[in-house]
């Protein structure tokens, strides 16, 4: 197979090629295949150090400090001790590395858990246990019921009697329906599974690709006589990340590791950088610009005398405080505190923060993209309503249905002759017989098979013989079908047996009714209906039953005046509606139909069209029996959560792999689309012209939700990307159904590019991983389905309802606190830089530092670090208020807490305070220069502590501790700082009054301004707290 084409590239690991896989002989491989490991890590052991350093120094911010610290090795540029520049930088890097290392180790442990799941493998030594990561191409793997398929396999054998198995694929494609899979016929016929190793056979498989819905391959048995060749299609595959829903299966592995369909459908995780970090980075660039300008001005005022270029460098170093190095440390530590708070919140138990670098992103989400199955819904169907036109039965009146069914089978006069007489059909049937007819129809028209499993007491054969209730499980492709059959069982008519040609029902009295299945017309997405023709063995009656969506059934059933209205009412309640109808056939009618049907099936040209025409000849004037309403139960508190998000100004988009009808039902049921909103269902389009017309039709509608399928979406994005996104972004809600995993990620990317707003993606399945990794914030819901999404996400929650609190409380607080913290740190460093500038200009523009050595390090660490950092505990409103008034969140979307306006205000405050303190000290000192240092430094520390107190909105006991501790530290350290500060001078009264006056002049005006502002133009939240 390899190198069959002359231009094929070298056979490395990089390109994918077709392969021949020998059953049970992994050693016969012709090329190297990747190991079967799942890996979500960003770095490995060797790339960790270079990777982290690169990610740190690619920011202008950190690179600047590195250059600054390095410059101190040059003698002409040295200002004071080396440690003043290297210690802060070292601390920053160590903290960052510890944080990254903790996240990597967590990630590694989660992957290890998945990679070390144990499976059974068939080998010449019998069955051996093997880890998921040890599985190779060519291995024969046994997968039990409810176990995850560990690698892409071809289905060889099953323990099921009917020779097929069901798969749950919601982790792969988001569809709730179970898929039927068929084993290779040749291997299913073998007496035992061990015989798979005795035959000489191989599978030829196409090269790995991204398409999960198609597969091309062949199976060949060489030692057969003659050799056996079978074609393989998607029906013979078991893709990784799916779950076996019935029986035990044996398969041969054809793809592993990064060649798995599920892995190829997920994009590489990107290193997420928060918008807030980018904004702070932008502010530091402005500060750096200011630093250069100030240095040039200083040198210009010296008239560029002497070696002025060295002077520029010295000034750059002297004013380097303008760009605060402690900003990064404070913000990173703040993020760790926010992450810890989220983890420790008892109102959202089980929440995990996997990316502790972006908690403040949660405070500015504009678009929330959510999956449906398992995220908004529980993926459990419940029968809610039976409607017979004149009467409807809800959950509370099911006992009436039960008594009607019971009476129908226990009355001795089972009116058989009457039903044959032509006159009887005209008479209005009694309600009892109508209910019975409806229940019987629902119990017959489906594709469900009852399966009996041994439970401790009875074994399988015995259970099947006696139709043991405790051992019975229903299997079907779709959960709605199962819920209908379970409902008929609850009202007394039980499906107890079924095979290809017959069905058995048990009545409330225990009598068994036998039906022969004459024809079966399965459900397809095109026809939207399914039918079955059965013969009742006891009476010989032939009946054609049918159920389907109301849109198609309306034209098939006899005229009535209630169908459309009631379907609408039930759909508005978020129920999935099916219309059930029947038609009695005479023996002659059926024979005539069968002859035409068989002939149509044999035709070569237009076969499907001819078959459909024959079936449609039956589908006329059918008797409408009832409507059934089934609900896919929503997760707890989905409606209030979506309401909170909507009021907070967040637009919710639902992206699902499920069918259009189901998606629309859930959207209504969850109130994603409010009652008074119209829904515009985008018609399927395939060409540019059709897309143009549909977009124009949609443009004319206002304030209506959009429902669009994945295929139509692709066409629109191909030709009219800009126009489509512009219209979609104006919609209050958007639902995309039949979305492929990569398409979900594409929609997220488009939203980010088109709107520039922040997006948050929520999902629970493997099919949501790409979207979660693409979004600015990925939230995984730990579902029953598995942990794939929650492992790849930045935050993982246990229920969708926790999202409200995560955004409204934690997101909002993290963002507001980060903004306050960053601006305060900038203010702190600008104050001291202003003082340095004033000092230098007074002393003839000399490049002499005002504060030496420990004073400069102590200023931004031990003296002011705790009070400034305690701002991460500040909150403007209680969490209950934030949840009650989600409109508060809306304010943050404009990015006001950290903007150029607020930044400018803080810069002006810093310049004012720095100048006042320095000029005050210069005016009030009498004799010695040392006194200037003492007065100005003490005033500076006091001013900082007072400013923190001014900024705080809600006091926390730790804040008070921090303020007092810092003050105590400063007073205690004065004893050791005798080389910088005159200890005897500090104890004099003149020192105390000078410091008090300077501090008052620098802080009092700001306190007065704050009071006036709160009095005459209070912010929104203060109105709620008062």
UniProtKB/TrEMBL annotation:
<feature type="domain" description="P-type ATPase C-terminal">
    <location>
        <begin position="791"/>
        <end position="1018"/>
    </location>
</feature>
<dbReference type="GO" id="GO:0045332">
    <property type="term" value="P:phospholipid translocation"/>
</dbReference>
<dbReference type="GO" id="GO:0006890">
    <property type="term" value="P:retrograde vesicle-mediated transport, Golgi to endoplasmic reticulum"/>
</dbReference>
<dbReference type="InterPro" id="IPR044492">
    <property type="entry name" value="P_typ_ATPase_HD_dom"/>
</dbReference>
<keyword id="KW-0813">Transport</keyword>
<feature type="domain" description="P-type ATPase A">
    <location>
        <begin position="124"/>
        <end position="259"/>
    </location>
</feature>
<keyword id="KW-0547">Nucleotide-binding</keyword>
<dbReference type="InterPro" id="IPR018303">
    <property type="entry name" value="ATPase_P-typ_P_site"/>
</dbReference>
<dbReference type="Pfam" id="PF16209">
    <property type="entry name" value="PhoLip_ATPase_N"/>
</dbReference>
<dbReference type="Pfam" id="PF00122">
    <property type="entry name" value="E1-E2_ATPase"/>
</dbReference>
<dbReference type="InterPro" id="IPR023299">
    <property type="entry name" value="ATPase_P-typ_cyto_dom_N"/>
</dbReference>
<keyword id="KW-1133">Transmembrane helix</keyword>
<dbReference type="InterPro" id="IPR006539">
    <property type="entry name" value="P-type_ATPase_IV"/>
</dbReference>
<feature type="transmembrane region" description="Helical">
    <location>
        <begin position="45"/>
        <end position="67"/>
    </location>
</feature>
<keyword id="KW-0812">Transmembrane</keyword>
<feature type="binding site">
    <location>
        <position position="657"/>
    </location>
    <ligand>
        <name>ATP</name>
    </ligand>
</feature>
<feature type="binding site">
    <location>
        <position position="576"/>
    </location>
    <ligand>
        <name>ATP</name>
    </ligand>
</feature>
<feature type="transmembrane region" description="Helical">
    <location>
        <begin position="851"/>
        <end position="873"/>
    </location>
</feature>
<feature type="transmembrane region" description="Helical">
    <location>
        <begin position="278"/>
        <end position="302"/>
    </location>
</feature>
<keyword id="KW-1278">Translocase</keyword>
<dbReference type="InterPro" id="IPR059000">
    <property type="entry name" value="ATPase_P-type_domA"/>
</dbReference>
<feature type="binding site">
    <location>
        <position position="744"/>
    </location>
    <ligand>
        <name>ATP</name>
    </ligand>
</feature>
<protein>
    <recommendedName>
        <fullName>Phospholipid-transporting ATPase</fullName>
        <ecNumber>7.6.2.1</ecNumber>
    </recommendedName>
</protein>
<comment type="similarity">
    <text>Belongs to the cation transport ATPase (P-type) (TC 3.A.3) family. Type IV subfamily.</text>
</comment>
<feature type="binding site">
    <location>
        <position position="768"/>
    </location>
    <ligand>
        <name>Mg(2+)</name>
    </ligand>
</feature>
<keyword id="KW-0067">ATP-binding</keyword>
<keyword id="KW-0460">Magnesium</keyword>
<feature type="binding site">
    <location>
        <position position="656"/>
    </location>
    <ligand>
        <name>ATP</name>
    </ligand>
</feature>
<feature type="binding site">
    <location>
        <position position="372"/>
    </location>
    <ligand>
        <name>ATP</name>
    </ligand>
</feature>
<feature type="binding site">
    <location>
        <position position="658"/>
    </location>
    <ligand>
        <name>ATP</name>
    </ligand>
</feature>
<dbReference type="InterPro" id="IPR036412">
    <property type="entry name" value="HAD-like_sf"/>
</dbReference>
<dbReference type="InterPro" id="IPR023214">
    <property type="entry name" value="HAD_sf"/>
</dbReference>
<feature type="binding site">
    <location>
        <position position="764"/>
    </location>
    <ligand>
        <name>Mg(2+)</name>
    </ligand>
</feature>
<feature type="binding site">
    <location>
        <position position="371"/>
    </location>
    <ligand>
        <name>Mg(2+)</name>
    </ligand>
</feature>
<dbReference type="GO" id="GO:0016887">
    <property type="term" value="F:ATP hydrolysis activity"/>
</dbReference>
<feature type="binding site">
    <location>
        <position position="481"/>
    </location>
    <ligand>
        <name>ATP</name>
    </ligand>
</feature>
<feature type="active site" description="4-aspartylphosphate intermediate">
    <location>
        <position position="371"/>
    </location>
</feature>
<feature type="binding site">
    <location>
        <position position="371"/>
    </location>
    <ligand>
        <name>ATP</name>
    </ligand>
</feature>
<dbReference type="Pfam" id="PF16212">
    <property type="entry name" value="PhoLip_ATPase_C"/>
</dbReference>
<feature type="transmembrane region" description="Helical">
    <location>
        <begin position="825"/>
        <end position="845"/>
    </location>
</feature>
<dbReference type="GO" id="GO:0005802">
    <property type="term" value="C:trans-Golgi network"/>
</dbReference>
<keyword id="KW-0472">Membrane</keyword>
């Amino acid at each position: 197979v390899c190198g069959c084409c002359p231009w094929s590239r070298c056979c490395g690991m990089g390109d994918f090629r077709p392969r021949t896989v020998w059953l049970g002989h992994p050693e016969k491989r012709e090329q190297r295949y990747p190991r079967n490991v799942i890996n979500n890590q960003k770095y490995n052991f060797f790339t960790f150090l270079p990777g982290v350093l690169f990610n740190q120094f690619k920011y202008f911010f950190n690179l600047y400090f590195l250059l600054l610290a390095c410059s101190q090795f040059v003698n002409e540029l040295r200002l004071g001790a080396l440690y003043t520049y290297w210690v802060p930088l070292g601390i920053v890097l160590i903290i960052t590395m510890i944080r990254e290392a903790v996240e990597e180790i967590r990630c590694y442990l989660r992957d290890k858990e998945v990679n070390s799941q144990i499976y059974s493998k068939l080998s010449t030594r019998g069955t051996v246990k093997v880890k998921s990561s040890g599985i190779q191409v060519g291995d024969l793997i046994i997968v039990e019921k409810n176990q995850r398929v560990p690698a892409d396999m071809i289905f060889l054998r099953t323990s099921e009697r009917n020779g097929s198995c069901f798969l749950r694929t919601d982790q792969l494609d988001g569809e709730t329906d179970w898929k039927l899979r068929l084993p290779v016929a040749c291997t299913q016929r073998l007496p035992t599974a061990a015989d798979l190793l005795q035959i000489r056979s191989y599978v030829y498989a196409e090269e790995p690709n991204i398409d999960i819905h198609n597969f091309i391959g062949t199976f060949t048995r060489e030692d057969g006589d003659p050799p056996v060749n079978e074609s393989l299609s998607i029906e013979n595959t078991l893709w990784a990340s799916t779950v076996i829903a019935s029986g035990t299966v044996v398969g041969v592995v054809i793809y592993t590791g990064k060649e798995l369909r599920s892995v190829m459908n997920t994009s590489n995780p990107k290193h997420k950088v928060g918008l807030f970090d980018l904004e702070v980075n932008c502010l530091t660039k402005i500060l750096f610009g200011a630093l250069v300008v100030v240095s040039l001005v200083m040198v210009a005022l010296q008239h560029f005398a002497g070696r002025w270029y060295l002077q520029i460098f010295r000034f750059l170093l002297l004013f380097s405080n303008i760009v605060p190095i402690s900003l990064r440390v404070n913000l990173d530590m703040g993020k760790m505190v926010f992450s810890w708070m989220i983890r420790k919140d008892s109102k959202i138990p089980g929440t995990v923060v996997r990316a502790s670098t972006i908690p403040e992103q949660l405070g500015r989400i504009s678009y929330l993209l959510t999956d449906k199955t398992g995220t908004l819904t529980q993926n459990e169907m419940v029968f809610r309503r039976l409607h017979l036109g004149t009467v409807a039965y809800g959950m509370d009146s099911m006992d009436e249905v039960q008594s009607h069914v019971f009476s129908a089978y226990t009355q001795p006069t089972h009116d058989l002759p009457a039903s044959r007489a032509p006159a009887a059909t005209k008479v209005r049937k009694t309600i009892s017989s109508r209910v019975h007819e409806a229940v019987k129809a629902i119990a017959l028209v489906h594709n469900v098979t009852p399966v009996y499993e041994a439970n401790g007491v009875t074994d399988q054969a015995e259970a099947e013989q006696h139709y043991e209730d405790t051992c019975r499980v229903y299997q079907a492709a779709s959960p709605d079908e199962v819920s209908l059959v379970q409902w008929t069982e609850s009202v007394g008519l039980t499906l107890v047996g079924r095979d290809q040609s017959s069905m058995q029902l048990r009545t409330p009295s225990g009598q068994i009714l036998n039906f022969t299945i004459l024809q079966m017309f399965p459900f397809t997405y095109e026809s939207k209906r399914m039918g079955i023709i059965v013969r009742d063995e006891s009476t010989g009656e032939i009946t054609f039953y049918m159920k389907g969506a109301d849109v198609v059934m309306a034209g098939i059933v006899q005229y009535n005046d209630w169908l459309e209205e009631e379907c609408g009412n039930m759909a508005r309640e978020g129920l999935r509606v099916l219309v059930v109808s029947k038609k009695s056939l005479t023996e002659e009618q059926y024979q005539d139909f069968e002859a035409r049907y068989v002939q149509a099936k044999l035709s070569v040209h237009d076969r499907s069209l001819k078959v459909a025409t024959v079936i449609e000849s039956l589908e006329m004037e059918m008797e409408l029996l009832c409507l059934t309403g089934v609900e896919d139960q929503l997760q707890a508190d989905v409606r209030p959560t979506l309401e909170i998000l909507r009021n907070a100004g967040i637009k919710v988009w639902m992206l699902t792999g499920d069918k259009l009808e189901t998606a629309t039902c859930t959207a209504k049921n969850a109130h994603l689309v409010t009652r008074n909103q119209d829904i515009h269902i985008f018609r399927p389009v395939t060409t540019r012209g059709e897309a143009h017309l549909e977009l124009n039709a949609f443009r004319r509608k206002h304030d209506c939700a959009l429902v669009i399928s994945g295929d139509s979406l692709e066409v629109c994005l191909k030709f009219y990307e800009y126009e489509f996104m512009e219209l979609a972004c104006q919609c209050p809600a958007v639902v995309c159904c039949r979305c492929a995993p990569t398409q979900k990620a594409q929609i997220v990317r488009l939203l980010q590019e088109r709107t520039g707003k922040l997006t948050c993606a929520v999902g629970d399945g493997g099919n949501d991983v790409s979207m979660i990794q693409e979004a600015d914030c990925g939230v995984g819901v730990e579902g029953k389905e598995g942990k794939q999404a929650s492992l790849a996400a930045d935050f993982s929650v246990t229920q969708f309802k926790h999202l409200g609190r995560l955004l409204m409380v934690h997101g909002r607080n993290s963002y507001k606190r980060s903004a306050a913290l960053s601006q305060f740190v900038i203010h702190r460093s600008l104050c001291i830089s202003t003082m340095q500038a004033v000092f230098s200009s007074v002393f003839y523009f000399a490049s002499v530092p005002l504060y030496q050595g420990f004073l400069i390090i102590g200023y931004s660490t031990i003296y002011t670090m705790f009070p400034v950092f305690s701002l991460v505990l500040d909150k403007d409103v209680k969490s209950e208020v934030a949840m009650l008034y989600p409109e508060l969140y809306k304010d943050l979307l404009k990015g006001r807490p950290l903007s150029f306006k607020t930044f400018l205000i803080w810069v002006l405050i810093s310049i004012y305070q720095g100048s006042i303190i320095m000029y005050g000290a210069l005016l009030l000192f009498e004799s010695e220069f040392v006194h200037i240092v003492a007065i100005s430094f003490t005033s500076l520390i006091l001013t900082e502590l007072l400013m923190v107190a001014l900024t705080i909105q809600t006091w926390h006991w730790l804040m008070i501790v921090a303020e007092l501790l810092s003050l105590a530290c400063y007073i205690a350290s004065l004893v050791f700082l005798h080389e910088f500060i005159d200890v005897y001078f500090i104890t004099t009264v003149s020192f105390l009054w000078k410091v008090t006056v300077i501090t008052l002049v620098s802080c009092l005006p700001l306190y007065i301004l704050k009071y006036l502002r709160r009095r005459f133009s209070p912010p929104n939240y203060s109105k709620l707290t008062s």
